[in-house]
């Protein structure tokens, strides 16, 4: 992961990197993002509000539902409407946005917030709290499969791991499948990621297999469907039960190589993980140890054993 070109590129709200670009001149620096993730990710920071020419500090803005449309306006004056400028800004950045492998957004922002954003009536009365930021709406419409997450939600261990897993999977898929659109590339990618998908959704694992089986002659369509289904499967945090199922599946590949003591030790580590006594890294490390001693081409290519840089500590 030391090669800069091999790193995923992730868009990010500038304030999350610690830049003082918020409406009040402050920031929302995330320690996880700046101190850990930045070593393994290339960030493409941007503040959409500054991108449309707003100053720091600046008047607060609201989302107002006017007719059938949601508009980004000044919180005090609905006539000051920034929506068209935001659309122009988004359109101008499309070439850069199309190269991203993920996006980290600032929570509670009427431009960048992913959920629970306040939406007002034309008169400025609170209508509901179920909105999304205007920039996020554009991003999701144009790139529905792009991994996205809010800064605050990255404090949740399950959501954090799911998001990071998706970033690296999306990055690999773009480089290895979308750049070639061949059946061979799709089959190889699917083979490498079987155990990873199974750890999140056994149902999606089976559905993806059926997609790959029918890819010949429909490479572009099937590849896009594959990415959508995979990103959807990885978008919800997994659990110990699903991981245990995959660990036991991997254990089966060593039944002829391991002696009785090694088998017992591996069984105990998997069971300790299932019961919550040890982290996932414990049985995974032991499996990787046995894999070095007894090489297996299929297992060695499995992204499940290291879906993202180990130094991030997400399995510890």
Automatic annotation (TrEMBL):
It holds the Pfam family DUF1722. Residues 194-309 form the DUF1722 domain. It comes from the Bacteria. This is DUF1722 domain-containing protein.
